[in-house]
Amino acid sequence: MADRISQGEDQTTAEAKPILLVTGMSGAGRSTALHALEDIGYEAVDNLPLRVLPMVARLSKSIDRPLAIGVDVRSRGFAVEAVLKGIEKIAARTGRQTRLIFLDCDDDVLVRRFTETRRRHPLAADRTVADGIAIERGAIGRLRDHADDVIDTSVLPPGELKRLVQALAGEGSEASLTITVTSFSFRRGLPREADLVFDVRFLRNPFYDRTLRPLDGRDAPVGEYVQNDPDFPGFFQGLTALLKPLLPRYKAEGKSYLTIAFGCTGGKHRSVYLAERLTKWLAEQGWPAGLQHRDVEASRKPMSLSPGTPGTASGTRGPQEDAS
Fold first, then answer.
1. Does 25 carry a binding-site annotation?
2. Where does ATP bind (predicted)?
3. Total domains, the chain
4. Is 176 annotated as a binding residue?
C-alpha cells in the first residue's frame, strides 16, 4: 500500500463510505483507478482470490480508511457469478454498501496499448493479444451489465480517468461534480462519455481562410475569427444561460461527473475555440473543469481544397468533408 495516503479519516468516516470493487478489461486502467483512490485515502488491494473478499471487507472495519478492491480475470476463482455473490456476502457481513466500477475500452485501443507497452495479456499466453481480449470480453462482459458505474477509457487520458474515479468516490464531498470540456471531430464520431453535445458547425469556418487553416482554436487569430461571427455572441450567451442553472442542479442531484462536448467537422478550429472559451467561463463561475481536445492533432494532417473552393473566409461551408 502506498504511504502517501492521508491519515485524517477516523473509523466512522471509513465505514460510512461504500466498499468499491474496481474491475473491467485488462489494459483499461484498473491500476490507474486504484492509485487514484489511494491518493484520496482509500486502502487499495488488488487481485485477491475471490473467496477471501468478504473476509477482507470484514477486516476493513478495523482500518480507519475506506476500502477499494481490484478484481479481474487473474483473480483466483474468477467468474461473474462469483463476483456477484462476493458483493452480496460483503454487504451481508459488513452492512456496508458495495459499489462496482467497470472500466471498459475499445478492443483496437487495448491491442495498441498492449503492443506499445510490450505487456503480455493475461489470457494470451499462447495466442495473439486480440484473441486474449476476445476471450476476456466473453468471460467478463456480463459483469458490465451489473456495474453501478461504467467508464470507457478508449480516449480518456490517465489524468481524466483519475479525476472521474475520484469524483465517483466522492472526493471532497458527497455532492462533488467533476466537469470535463472536450472538442471533437464529427468525422471521427461522438465522444462516448459526452453528456451534453453542441454542434458548432453553423459558425463561420476558419478552414477556408488560408492564413488560419494551419492554426487551431487555441491560437488568438482563430479565436478572433470565430467570435466575430455575427451569431457567436448570441450562441455563447444562450449556452452559458443554459448551463448556469443546470450545473448546481446536477450537483444537487448527486451527479458525479459531467462531460460537455463541442463538435465541428475537423475538430481543429471552431470546436477547440469553444471548448477553450467555455472552460475559462466555467472557472470564472467557480466550476473548474478539465479540458481536452480529442482530435486536434489528427486534424493537423495536410488537407487540400477542391478546385474552385473559395480560399477566403466567406462563412459558407464547402463540400469538402475534411474542413475543420
1. yes
2. 24-31
3. 2
4. no
